[in-house]
Amino acid sequence: MATNDHTKSSNEDLGKSKISRRDLLKMAGIGGAGLLLGGAGIGALFKSNEDGSAAASGAPADGYHEEIPFYGAHQAGITTPAQDFVLFASFDLTTTSIDEVRELFKQWTAASATMAKGQMIGEDNEKLSVPPSDTGEAAGLQPSKTTLTFGVGPSFFDARFGLAGKKPAELADLPAFNGDALREEWVGGDLGVQVCANDMQVAFRAIRNLTRIARGKAALRWTQEGFQRTGGSDPSGGTARNLMGFKDGTGNPDVKDDAKMNEVVWSQAGDGQSWLVGGSYMIVRRIRIRVEVWDRSTLGDQEATFGRHRASGAPLGSKDEFDKIDLDRKDEKGKPVIPMGAHVRVAKEDGVQILRRSYSYSSGLDKRTGQFDAGLLFIAYNRSLAKQFIPMQTRLASSDALNEYIEHNGSAVFACFPGVKEGGYIGDTLL
């Protein structure tokens, strides 16, 4: 980051004299600190150095220069800390040749590894006589923590490719849940691709290039963009809020706990198909929020619906976001502090866990109603659909107080491959 000479010299002087932030405040006085720095405030002295490293304040990296490796034991984008944006794409295969599917996966792997590095795809980007090998809109942009995560849907294992015997027993379209209002334009797909990045143009470029490479072999079925607050707007890295104003994902298991991830997320030997070991089941649900109705609800009703305080994210009756949820606690009248239909109660009652990776979405107006088409692109990962997500969602669909304000209109499920070794390709354990 460029600095002017005055700020640069101030940083150097500060480092030599080892003046602390507190000392500087004492010298200048709180009211005069802004004047001392020409209106920039104390923070100007504690920003990143010119080489991009964190300065005295320990400020986080900008989130754009960092590269997340594509290759590894597990696919990136599952336990990776959530980036600012997502673009999810569902594809239908148009080829009936398993050899062409294999070739597509190899091409996608090479392109994905290149895009994760923030580099241009191919060698034909300066030849005037041929179409460019990269669509070009991310030329010169940083990697932006781009991850690409791939999976196959139940329909991938139909009669086209001779793979029916390798279909995991659990991989099937989700059952119809109470209150579902699914719309064909947001359901299913042979292939699912989740692209996450800290820049939306970078994410779009990834899906666009995958679609271009797939021409003649696969075609887009549906897409959905999503967002959360950016890292820059919340340097503390707190839990993101959904469009209802509440923190979303507080109860996630610790992704740094390998034993917990093996229990909750990663498919294990003995679970079923050996090709899926180290992979996971991805659930995608497009959940519209009736924001106009929600906005007319009192804060008390909203907190009772979630079972949490909106400001802090703490369970009702507690002060901290991560305080233990006490479902047995009663108020002075003997009523449960967390109401019986509260979202956190219904979701937690039998102790089942999944790994949520959800984003908000806004897709303009719903022309049928003239209201916002906005809500939650719910993405989650688990080791077992039958033992984790399906029983949890069955309970939520039947008794969650949130159902008054939401509508599930999109749904898909995919078996996500294990990670790719360098020299291999996505799906090589299956194909």
From TrEMBL:
<keyword id="KW-0732">Signal</keyword>
<feature type="domain" description="Dyp-type peroxidase N-terminal">
    <location>
        <begin position="75"/>
        <end position="228"/>
    </location>
</feature>
<dbReference type="GO" id="GO:0046872">
    <property type="term" value="F:metal ion binding"/>
</dbReference>
<dbReference type="GO" id="GO:0030313">
    <property type="term" value="C:cell envelope"/>
</dbReference>
<keyword id="KW-0479">Metal-binding</keyword>
<dbReference type="Pfam" id="PF04261">
    <property type="entry name" value="Dyp_perox_N"/>
</dbReference>
<dbReference type="GO" id="GO:0005829">
    <property type="term" value="C:cytosol"/>
</dbReference>
<keyword id="KW-1133">Transmembrane helix</keyword>
<feature type="domain" description="Dyp-type peroxidase C-terminal">
    <location>
        <begin position="239"/>
        <end position="420"/>
    </location>
</feature>
<keyword id="KW-0456">Lyase</keyword>
<keyword id="KW-0575">Peroxidase</keyword>
<dbReference type="InterPro" id="IPR006311">
    <property type="entry name" value="TAT_signal"/>
</dbReference>
<keyword id="KW-0408">Iron</keyword>
<dbReference type="InterPro" id="IPR006313">
    <property type="entry name" value="EfeB/EfeN"/>
</dbReference>
<dbReference type="InterPro" id="IPR006314">
    <property type="entry name" value="Dyp_peroxidase"/>
</dbReference>
<dbReference type="GO" id="GO:0020037">
    <property type="term" value="F:heme binding"/>
</dbReference>
<keyword id="KW-0812">Transmembrane</keyword>
<dbReference type="GO" id="GO:0033212">
    <property type="term" value="P:iron import into cell"/>
</dbReference>
<comment type="similarity">
    <text>Belongs to the DyP-type peroxidase family.</text>
</comment>
<dbReference type="InterPro" id="IPR011008">
    <property type="entry name" value="Dimeric_a/b-barrel"/>
</dbReference>
<keyword id="KW-0472">Membrane</keyword>
<dbReference type="GO" id="GO:0004601">
    <property type="term" value="F:peroxidase activity"/>
</dbReference>
<feature type="region of interest" description="Disordered">
    <location>
        <begin position="227"/>
        <end position="253"/>
    </location>
</feature>
<keyword id="KW-0349">Heme</keyword>
<dbReference type="InterPro" id="IPR019546">
    <property type="entry name" value="TAT_signal_bac_arc"/>
</dbReference>
<dbReference type="Pfam" id="PF20628">
    <property type="entry name" value="Dyp_perox_C"/>
</dbReference>
<dbReference type="GO" id="GO:0004325">
    <property type="term" value="F:ferrochelatase activity"/>
</dbReference>
<feature type="transmembrane region" description="Helical">
    <location>
        <begin position="24"/>
        <end position="46"/>
    </location>
</feature>
<protein>
    <recommendedName>
        <fullName>Deferrochelatase</fullName>
        <ecNumber>1.11.1.-</ecNumber>
    </recommendedName>
</protein>
<dbReference type="InterPro" id="IPR048328">
    <property type="entry name" value="Dyp_perox_C"/>
</dbReference>
<keyword id="KW-0560">Oxidoreductase</keyword>
<comment type="function">
    <text>Involved in the recovery of exogenous heme iron. Extracts iron from heme while preserving the protoporphyrin ring intact.</text>
</comment>
<dbReference type="InterPro" id="IPR048327">
    <property type="entry name" value="Dyp_perox_N"/>
</dbReference>
